[in-house]
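Read as chain and fold; for instance:
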Amino acid sequence: MLIYGSKAKELDNQSIFDKCPNCGNQNCVDIHVVQKYAHVFWIPFFPIGKTGISNCNHCKQVLKLKEMPESFRNAYNNLKKQAKAPVWMFAGLGLVAVLVTIGIISDQQNDAKNRKLIQSPQSGDVFEIKTEDKQYSLFKVGNVNQDTVYIRAHQYETNKFSGLAELKKKGESGYSEVIIPFTKDELKQMLEKGEIIDIDRN
């Protein structure tokens, strides 16, 4: 369940000399600048706009921005120009940026690992395969003889990448007894085309 919404935080306030339109007293009204921000799971993501209120310390009248007299709004606009959203209100965006960067680096490292492993396949290597019809399955390396790699294909496919974990749990019994020969160049091409999406080596 995704919990999201918006909250508000006061950025600044200032007392003004103008009369309160309700009680007529002077020098008793405060103008407040309030910053709204979006949050997801209570983590601030980004600011979504400022608003303001006025309150009279004498009669306690509170006015929203659209209810303020023009002089109050002018005071609010001047104060608003100086009030900046704090950095912590961008925490969610910063977190997303960090996670995306970590994901990119992790993918690059995994790609480099796979390019290295495909150069010298070993008995027991398991190739995670994506088929032309967008199914997922496994190849397991049996023997390697110079440039030829002998593969046993898994007998089952899954329509989800996460389903490969279940195929692996079946162990040796899940693989066909039929041996399929591939050249190392063919396997490299499969990796480059995205047909081999990952390589496990114990």
